[in-house]
Amino acid sequence: MNRSLSVFVLSGLLATSSLQATPVRADTQALYKQHCAECHGVDRLGIMGPALLPDNLKRLRKQNAFQVIQNGRAATQMPAFREKLQPEQIQSLVDLVYTPLEQVPIWGMAQIKASQLVYHPPGSLPDKPLFDADIDNLFMVVELGDHHATLLNGDTFEPIHRLPTRFALHGGPKWADGGRYIYFASRDGWISKFDVFNLTYVAEVRAGINSRNLAVSHDGRYVIVANYLPHTLTVLDARDLAPIKVIQAKDENGVSSRVSAVYTADPRDSFVAAMKDIPEVWEISYLDEPPAGFSGWVHDYNKESGDAHKEQPFAVRRIRVKDYLDDFFMTQDYDQIIGSTRNGSGQVVDLDLKRAVANVALPGMPHLSSGITWNYQGRTVLATPNIKEGQVSIIDTKTWQVVKQIKTDGPGFFMRSHEQSPYAWVDVFFGPNKDRMHVIDKQTLEIVKTLKPAPGKTSAHVEFTRDGKYALVSIWDDDGALVVYDANTFKEIKRLPMKKPSGKYNVHNKLTRSAGTSH
């Protein structure tokens, strides 16, 4: 990839920005311009390096930022400044980058278009893979330790290709076109399209400054990006990532909001997004002609009446809810969502009725975007880990009553299963027992096995092969590994060294919207 081109494009763009940072000492501003602006932008919005804004730096604690500036960051282009800067100068830079900007930066259609990089135009690369493998059983493994990803053969568990990624991938990459392409989103808003068949990036664009996640329409035509900064949803042409539309995340009174997350609702031909700062859920149609009345009430749908106005592309249906949703889970029928609220409960929203229909008692902070479903005693249940409580909640998706709270050895982050497996796996991501992985029997709702793949190191994020026979576990450490288990006997099959592997994404499970994985 031509990274220098991206630096050139954005350097020119940001150098002309009128945005001003919160006032700081003149000598600190001079230090920043001298040592940081070339990679991170004169306005801290990021270029080759990440945006240096408080919301973008949540993965780097402020007390650790001093060490990063002083000693550099391994496996990146971040150099060490200990020979150039005094400790008090480094601390002044730390204070600067953790200072919010005075106003929300402008990052609209013009800026997005200027950032677009097309390395291979659509249709210019061969349609035959460069390797021999079952495309449906490929995995993409994100390695956060050195900002890479590994394409893995899910039959042999042998790496096919290792590729560099943008800094701090976030929200999970999304497969499309039967596994031909995969789309990555970075915390800094960079969206990258990778051609798996040809093992190369084909396009990139910066859709926002601080992005949460992306979704791809089930027909593979559109990509949509949820942004914290600025407060927008960005719609892209999936072919070359050209921007199509920027949707301002505002309520009818003009109150602006960050976008918590966006997901694809295949049967509805729409995207569903939750707002973080206004009590609304949005459904966004990606049909060429959204149905009349999609974005609002219509008195008479008869075209001759003139009352049914023609909907604009990517029409937005606003659903007012009772509380803000920080994240959410979509049912397998895609007619309802359940989201976590700030008052320690869950809120169920019916997309057809266009209103909240139930509350669910969910103390702590359930990680609903990692929720999974299965059949239990003739009914579909939702299982979700909890980021603050050592428990897994099992919820009946018809009555929305809690069936059981399964006590775990600590708060968890990820949960996975497979239609062909009798077990669900959940990590203990937070706390002193982070090296444990629980295996739950889906019919007895009891923990039947606790694994320790790497004592003392964090075990996280299970994903199954397409047939459900094997479970892959991440050792979330710079000196980490991908551990392959027999999903029925829990016997270790293989261990591949990796640099802080996080998520693993199987083509078949993701594209078929498996009940055992997040969507």
The helix fraction, in percent, is 10-25%
Record field, number of beta strands: 33
**Residue ranges: pLDDT <50 for 5 or more in a row?**
1-22
Classification by helices and strands = mainly beta
**Strand residue percentage:** 35-45%
Strand order of the largest sheet: 1-8-7-6-5
Shape category: globular
The profile of the biggest β sheet is: 5 strands, antiparallel
Q: Measure the end-to-end span.
A: 29 Å
- Please give the radius of gyration in angstroms: 23 Å
Mean pLDDT: 89
Number of helical elements: 7
Task: Give a verbal description of the structure.
- The structure is a single chain.
- The protein has 519 residues and is mainly beta.
- Helices cover 12% and strands 36% of the residues.
- It has a 5-stranded antiparallel β-sheet with strand order 1-8-7-6-5. It has a 4-stranded antiparallel β-sheet with strand order 4-3-2-33.
- Helix 4 packs across helix 5.
- The longest helix is centred in the N-terminal third of the chain and has 13 residues.
- 45% of the residues are buried.
